[in-house]
Task: inverse folding
């Protein structure tokens, strides 16, 4: 117990210790910076030091560069297609005005309006199927090709067959709307046991068709051409139009390739990022891959 007569002195002593501790901490947090009284801004002469330049990224810098590129690309999907900073190659849009027109129609709601109501994120194939039928989509399914050249189809066990009617053939489910909306669901994914296919997980995509005629959609069927050739572009789950394939031939803007490993890496990151934005993995009971 501290005598009451000494309490004021004890409090002052503790206060002085606290203040000295704060002063010490303030100095330690700026251990790498020399402190001096600031001068009036009008008297300062800026003389920046030369930048430190290096030729090779370390591991962390490489990772940071990839993440930065992905973030930049995500932001670019929200820009107007004619904006030089968008994901679209400007020369491609000039040479393919019908694609640009389809993009404008989609953005204005004149084409594929129903597609903007479709949310694929965090859903099972059945949940998306139910949502699409409620929105007036027409449903059909076709065997999933393993090779167009060999005329083979995927089987659920990972093998392939030339018989499109095989009991274990893998299907792609197509959902078309009279307004030109297209959704594809690959509920079984692509069972490539070799691991060479770039997207094996069960997934779904949104796209806009090029040639459409609402008169072809009657009662329980919509006779639209759902082939790759009639796909104008893909649409991200945030409803932004992006090229349907990771290639300049389909309108994707890629950096100039000097042949260096850095340029190749940038190109690979952009291609993968765009396709990841255009494909949404389905909710499944699959364990997380290692």
Result:
């Amino acid at each position: 117990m501290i005598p009451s007569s000494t309490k004021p002195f004890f409090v002052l002593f503790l206060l002085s210790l606290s203040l000295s501790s704060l002063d010490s901490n303030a100095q330690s947090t700026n251990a790498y910076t020399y402190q001096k009284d600031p001068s009036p801004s009008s008297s300062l002469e800026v003389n920046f030091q030369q930048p430190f330049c290096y030729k090779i990224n370390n591991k962390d810098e490489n990772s940071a560069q990839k993440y930065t590129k992905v973030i930049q690309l995500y932001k670019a999907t929200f820009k107007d297609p004619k904006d030089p900073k968008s994901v679209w190659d400007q020369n491609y849009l000039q040479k393919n005005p019908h694609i640009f027109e389809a993009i404008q129609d989609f953005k204005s709601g004149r084409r594929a309006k129903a597609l903007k109501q479709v949310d694929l994120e965090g859903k099972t194939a059945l949940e998306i199927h139910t949502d699409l039928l409620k929105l007036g989509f027409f449903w059909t399914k076709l065997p999933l090709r393993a090779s167009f050249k060999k005329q083979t189809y995927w089987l659920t066990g990972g093998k392939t067959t030339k018989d499109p009617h095989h009991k274990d053939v893998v299907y792609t489910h197509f959902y078309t709307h009279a307004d030109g909306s297209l959704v594809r669901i690959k509920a079984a994914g692509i069972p490539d046991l070799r691991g060479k296919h770039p997207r094996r997980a069960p997934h779904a995509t949104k796209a806009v068709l090029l040639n459409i005629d609402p008169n072809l959609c009657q009662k329980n069927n919509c006779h639209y051409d759902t082939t790759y050739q009639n796909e104008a572009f893909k649409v991200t789950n945030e409803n932004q139009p992006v090229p349907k394939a990771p290639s300049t031939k389909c309108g994707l803007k890629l950096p100039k390739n000097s042949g260096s490993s850095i340029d190749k890496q940038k190109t690979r990151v952009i291609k993968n990022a765009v396709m990841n934005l255009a494909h949404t993995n389905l909710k499944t009971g699959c364990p997380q891959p290692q």
Notes: The radius of gyration is 29 Å.
